[in-house]
Specification:
With 349 residues, this protein is an alpha+beta fold. It folds into two domains: 106 residues, RRM (RNA recognition motif) domain (Alpha-Beta Plaits, 2-Layer Sandwich), CATH 3.30.70.330; 143 residues, 2-Layer Sandwich (Methyltransferase, Cobalt-precorrin-4 Transmethylase, Domain 2), CATH 3.30.950. Helix content is 34%, strand content 24%. The strands form three sheets. Strands 6, 7, 8, 9, 10 and 11 form a six-stranded mixed β-sheet that branches. Strands 2-3-1-4-5 form a five-stranded antiparallel β-sheet, with helices on one face. Strand 12 and strand 13 form a beta hairpin. About 10% of the residues have low confidence. It comes from Magallana gigas (Pacific oyster). InterPro entries: Schlafen (IPR029684), Schlafen_AlbA_2_dom (IPR007421), Schlafen_AlbA_2_dom_sf (IPR038461).
Length: 349
């Protein structure tokens, strides 16, 4: 008997010309970085299809709502286009990606006769089933998704979900009203500048209130390109230049509950990747900012100069330590050579 596993996704018409490792890496990149599904590489099983031109794969999403979300994103060319993933990296040439739930074969064991107690009463044994399943994921009773939950769900946000407090790596802005038109570019420039100067990864969340609760901001699909353009313009105004590989922009849909979307509401995430130790401060048209716990600090002229002095002193200290190590190594080598010379003299004598 065939049944559907609602946690495991089936992908077909996959490339066979790039090798197993590259294909698995590309599928993992799609699920984790573009669909927001938290899986591990060993959740992906690729079948080489007995040497045929195209391969297929199974991906264990672990949760029904996550698998449902993935299939919704992959169901058509238009929905796949919105994910902004390069599907030619996984899909065979001249073929379209096919997706669905994994079908599993369930074999019913032969029923055993019911033995009797000495008193003559029947013992009731339930018939057992054995799943022939590569992924040991239990099947659901189908009612799990009907419960409203505020627990994190990968790939979406739930209205009222709590994202924690503002920290050095998180800044929340509720948005609303004319925020996108009048305020967003200033905030993006200010907070991205602060994250860059802190050297650590940080995210500006737009559509989350000051207490960390998700509300979402009205941003239909037709507006996303314009919003992305405003964000790019705000970041281009920062000096020195901030290249596109340093930041990522995501539009994550907001749901009232799993399966019930809050129409056209998103959380806009501007993710700044860690820059590490920087040689000079980034500055925006609105000033030079540094990230502090739960906020930002605007640096004045004296503070910028002090930062530069400390940076210069740190460089000098590093160079002095490096020079000291080289001198120690040189002295050790000279000492070793002198000992070898004395040893040779003693042997001759």
């Amino acid at each position: 008997m065939d049944v559907i596993n609602p946690r495991v996704i089936y992908l077909d018409n996959l490339r066979s010309d790039i090798g197993l490792k590259n294909l698995k890496d590309n599928i993992y990149n799609l699920f984790v970085h573009y669909l927001g599904i938290d899986i591990a590489p060993n959740d992906i099983f690729i079948h080489t299809n007995h040497g045929k031109d195209s391969w297929y794969a199974y991906v264990n999403c672990h949760e029904e709502h996550q698998a449902e979300y993935v299939l919704d994103q992959l169901k058509s060319w238009d929905s796949r286009r919105r994910t902004r993933f390069n599907y030619t990296s996984i899909c065979a040439v001249s073929q379209s990606l096919a997706s669905g739930y994994k079908t599993e074969t369930v074999r019913k064991k032969k029923s055993r006769k019911k033995p009797k107690h000495k008193g003559g009463e029947d013992i009731d044994y339930q018939n057992s089933f054995q799943e022939e399943n590569f992924f040991s994921a239990p099947l659901s009773n189908g009612f799990q998704n009907s419960k409203k939950s505020k627990d994190p769900v990968h790939g979406i946000y739930l209205e009222g979900e709590q994202l924690g407090n503002e920290t050095r790596s998180k800044e929340f802005k509720k948005g609303g009203g004319e925020y996108i038109k009048n305020v967003m570019k200033k905030h993006v420039s200010k907070y991205v500048c602060a994250f860059l100067n802190s050297g650590e990864e940080g995210t500006l969340y737009i559509g989350v209130n000051d207490d960390g609760y998700v509300e979402g901001i009205f941003c239909p699909q037709s507006l996303e390109d314009e919003v992305r353009l405003h964000i790019d313009e705000a970041i281009k105004a920062i000096s020195p230049s901030v290249f596109t590989n340093i930041y990522t922009v995501k539009f994550t849909p907001v749901y009232f509950q799993v399966g019930v979307p809050k129409e056209n509401h998103k959380v806009i995430e501007i993710i700044v990747h860690g820059t590490g130790d920087i040689d000079r401060l980034y500055h925006s048209p609105h000033g030079v900012f540094l990230r502090r716990d739960g906020g930002v600090q605007k640096l004045g002229v004296a503070e910028v100069q002090e930062w530069s002095v400390q940076k210069h002193q740190k460089k000098i200290q590093i160079l002095e330590e490096r020079l000291k190590r080289q001198e120690d190594m040189f002295e050790a080598r000279i000492s070793h050579e002198e000992k070898e010379k004395k040893s040779k003299v003693c042997v001759v004598m």
